[in-house]
């Protein structure tokens, strides 16, 4: 439907969550394609309310879960979120990209409690940019697909191939 390239910009908007990550060869190209949108008024520090994508190809990442290479699930929310983001990073790299290209991130947390927000942000902020954080949503859910899984993350990213 869209072909190999987008003919017009796509605005990805949402409420958002917000440090550095390793640089890659075409980081500047991806940065030029992602434009944070933050309207005037109240805002959550360190987040983008929306992300305008200009160019590139859209990469849709399905829900990533905290299974490690041996099929084990770490204990605790911070360890599980770290594993999920490692798995998401592996998928991004397999597509020729990295976390610099993430335009939208959705985090689903089983039995979410507001007191967990600080630990979620601590882990997430090791993977996303403070200068260009993706549009994000944090959604509390009653359950996920497996009883040991506490967190799942899906995303939208751009690829510059």
Morphology call:
globular
The fraction of residues assigned to DSSP E strands is 25-35%
Secondary-structure-derived class: alpha+beta
The count of β-strands is: 7
Sequence stretches where pLDDT stays below 50 over 5 or more residues? 1-23
CATH architecture: 2-Layer Sandwich
In the CATH hierarchy, the third-tier topology is known as 60s Ribosomal Protein L30, Chain: A
Q: Spell out the helices and strands N to C.
A: EHEEEHEHEE
Q: How many helices does DSSP assign?
A: 3
CATH class value? Alpha Beta
- Integer average pLDDT: 80
By CATH, the superfamily comes out as RutC-like
Count of discrete structural domains: 1
Termini separation (Å)? 18 Å
Sketch the major β-sheet.
Answer: 4 strands, mixed
Give Rg in angstroms.
15 Å
What does this 3D model show about the protein?
The protein is of the alpha+beta class and 161 residues long. The protein has a single domain (10-159), classed as RutC-like (60s Ribosomal Protein L30, Chain: A, 2-Layer Sandwich). Helices cover 20% and strands 28% of the residues. It contains three helices and seven strands. Strands 4-7-5-6 form a four-stranded mixed sheet. The chain is globular and about 40 Å long.
